[in-house]
Structures are given as structure tokens and as C-alpha cells.
Design a protein that fits this description.
By secondary structure, this protein is of the alpha/beta class. Helix content is about 40%, strand content about 15%. It binds pyridoxal-5'-phosphate.
């Protein structure tokens, strides 16, 4: 006999990207930022008063919410801070999807979404994407037909890097019967020339929630800090009812504010990554790889040969050289997802694939 709920017994947990211990490992597998966070974060940690840990943290993360409201031109009650973006995803499911309800997204998508649906005993509906990562024209209709209460769209999309335009998101939000949560984990890497501005949707769409995180653009994945933006009618039930009390510890609250005040630093980091992204894209295309145009800090790249075996071959051969990229089974088995590193890291990666290509028969 098991004490575990049947739904939990039957489901599979989220599978994490590998976290190799070795300092010599080159990690291009979990879309972490290759640069350190703002020096203001180190300074805030140095001056953090350890005595204050005796007390519970400020319950509502007020300082950060005021800062974020100011930066984004919103009101503090339109902002909620969460323990990583992942906590927000879980809260949104708990708050808006009843047991037996439906959670929607695309296929492929962030692999945590179906896991959250399974925990909630909700159906997961994945609408197929077009080649390259564009949304199906009838995405909203597919969601409505399946009676989806909450639809998640990663934008820029993971793992394709494809950016859906603001106007299309608005069309979808207007048509959807349920909530549209735009997961903007990678939004800091979008080229300004794209004029992407999902925040403008918040004025006219009462069913839109936006997820942001400090994990990627701000280089703070280890801090576990994310936040939601949206109508206060969507934020309030999560803030006041479903979240854990004290969901953000005092250290995370202090460091997130320090990082967030230094917007100029993050902009400069993301600019560097965009430059490296375009260098990597060109370098791989020159070598005969098919690379999606990406607005994120990773690229989805298919090695020449386009068969599952060549992607897997590169994945394994790179791993032998202590270079980690992400390989997915299933519909993406002919591609690798490669996080953008520093100039030096990317050169090491390119040298490795040149060597692998020279030594192989594929
Ligand atoms: C990284 C990521 C998140 C949030 O990550 P946290 O580290 O929990 O903030 C959410 N969605 C996608 C698609 C991501 O890649």
C-alpha cells in the first residue's frame, strides 16, 4: 500500500538539466547567464545584517514590488514576487485551474507545465507549433474548445527562441475564455528593434498575467526570484490566499532589490549576449547547421544530417569533452538547445564541434 495520491504515483517529475560539479565543465544546457550578476548584488550581500535573520521577512515583498511597479509603469498591487518564476506557475495553476480542469500551452513547450497539470489532476492540452516555433493561427480556438482555464505561452518561446508579436498576443488574449499567462523568462534578451511590448496588454486585457524572473537576464538563477505582472484582480487571490506566507526570504528580498535598481547593468549584459547569439548563429550556419532565429539566450540548432542520430552523436561527443548542451527526445530529437555563453566559451564549443565533425563519419 502507498500513502501517495494515485495521481502523484502515476506522474513523472520534472527532469532537470544536468548540473556538473567540475569547474572545467562548460555548461550550455540550462540557459543560465554566463556573466556574474551586478556588483551591487555582491555589495548588498556583504552589508546584509545577519542579525536580521532572527525575524521573519517582510511578508509582501513591498520594496521590490514598489521598485518593479515603477520600472514597469504599473501599480504595486499589479506586482507579486515569487520564489522563482516556477512558484508563480504553480500558484497560477493552483489558483485558476480546478481539479479536472484544463491547462493549455503549445507542443513543445516548457516541460514543467505538464508536470504542474498532473499534480493538479488537470488535463494538459498542447497545441502544435508551426515549423520554427510560430503559434497555430487558431491557438485561442483550440484552447477554448478544450475548455482551458489557463493557457501558458513562453515568449520568446523555449526551446525554439521564436518571438510572437505583441499584436498577436492581444488577438489571442481577446479571444481566450480563460487566462493567458505569458511566460517571459527570456524577455530581457529580445532585440529592441522588435518593439515587443506585452506590458501594453495589461491596460486592455483583464485576463493577462506576465511572468518575469531574475534567473536569466539578471544572472541570479541561484537566488530563486521571479515576479508576476497583471490586473490586481488576478494578482490578489494569489497574493492573499494561495501563496505560502513569507514566500521570499530576507536575503532574496534584499539582493533582488539591489539587482533591480541596477537596470543599466542588466541591459549591458543582455546586449553582450545578443551579440554573442548572433555570432554563434552565424558560426553554426557557416558549418551547415540549421539554426532558428532566436530572441532568447539560447539557440535551437540542428546539425547537418538532420537525423536524430547526428544530434545525439554531437550531444554525447560534447559531453565527453565536458561540454553540456540540452538534448530532448521526441519531436526535437534532431536538434540541440545550446545556451549562449561568453565569447571564450562559445569559441571552445565551436572548436569542439569542429573536432567532432572532423573525426566522425556522419
Ligand atoms: C527559467 C524559466 C522559468 C522560470 O525560472 P525560475 O528560475 O523559476 O525563475 C520559467 N519559464 C521558463 C520557460 C523558463 O525557462
Amino acid at each position: 500500500m502507498s500513502y501517495t495520491r494515485k495521481a502523484i504515483q502515476d506522474m513523472k517529475g520534472y527532469s532537470y538539466g544536468e548540473q556538473p560539479k567540475s569547474e572545467a565543465a562548460l555548461k550550455l544546457n540550462t540557459n543560465e547567464n554566463p556573466y556574474p550578476p551586478s556588483p551591487a548584488v555582491a555589495e548588498a550581500l556583504k552589508t546584509f545584517k545577519v542579525d536580521s535573520l532572527r525575524l521573519y521577512p517582510e511578508a509582501n515583498c513591498t520594496e521590490f514590488r514598489m521598485l518593479a511597479a515603477k520600472v514597469h509603469g504599473l501599480k504595486p498591487d499589479q506586482v507579486m514576487a515569487t520564489n522563482g518564476g516556477d512558484e508563480l506557475l504553480r500558484l497560477a495553476v493552483t489558483t485558476f485551474v480546478p481539479q479536472g480542469g484544463a491547462l493549455g500551452s503549445t507542443e513543445p513547450t516548457y516541460s514543467l507545465y505538464p508536470v504542474l497539470a498532473a499534480i493538479q489532476e488537470a488535463r494538459f492540452i498542447g497545441a502544435c507549433l508551426a515549423e520554427g516555433g510560430a503559434l497555430a493561427k487558431d491557438f485561442a480556438e483550440q484552447m477554448n474548445e478544450a475548455a482551458v482555464q489557463l493557457a501558458f505561452l513562453v515568449n520568446p518561446h523555449a526551446p525554439s527562441g521564436y518571438l510572437t508579436e505583441t499584436a498577436e498576443l492581444k488577438r489571442i488574449a481577446d479571444k481566450l475564455d480563460g487566462i493567458l499567462l505569458i511566460d517571459e523568462a527570456y524577455v530581457d534578451f529580445v532585440s529592441p528593434e522588435r518593439h515587443y511590448n506585452s506590458l501594453s496588454l495589461l491596460e486592455s486585457c483583464p485576463n493577462v498575467l506576465i511572468l518575469r524572473t531574475l534567473s536569466k537576464g539578471y544572472a541570479l538563477a541561484g537566488l530563486r526570484f521571479g515576479y508576476a505582472l497583471g490586473a490586481s484582480s488576478l494578482i490578489a487571490p494569489m497574493m492573499e490566499k494561495t501563496r505560502d506566507s513569507y514566500n521570499l526570504d530576507s536575503i532574496a528580498q534584499t539582493l533582488s532589490c539591489a539587482a533591480f535598481r541596477d537596470q543599466a547593468y542588466t541591459s549591458a549584459l543582455c546586449l553582450k549576449i545578443r551579440l554573442e547569439r548572433s555570432k554563434m548563429t552565424q558560426a553554426l550556419r557557416k558549418r551547415g547547421w540549421h539554426v532558428n532565429a532566436s530572441e532568447a539566450n539560447f539557440i535551437l540548432a540542428k546539425p547537418p544530417g538532420l537525423t536524430a542520430s547526428s544530434a545525439q552523436y554531437y550531444f554525447k561527443a560534447l559531453r565527453k569533452q565536458n561540454i553540456f548542451v540540452r538534448y530532448f527526445k521526441g519531436s526535437l530529437a534532431n536538434a540541440l538547445r545550446i545556451s549562449i555563453g561568453t565569447d571564450t566559451q562559445n569559441k571552445r564549443f565551436l572548436a569542439a564541434i569542429d573536432q567532432i565533425a572532423a573525426n566522425s563519419q556522419i
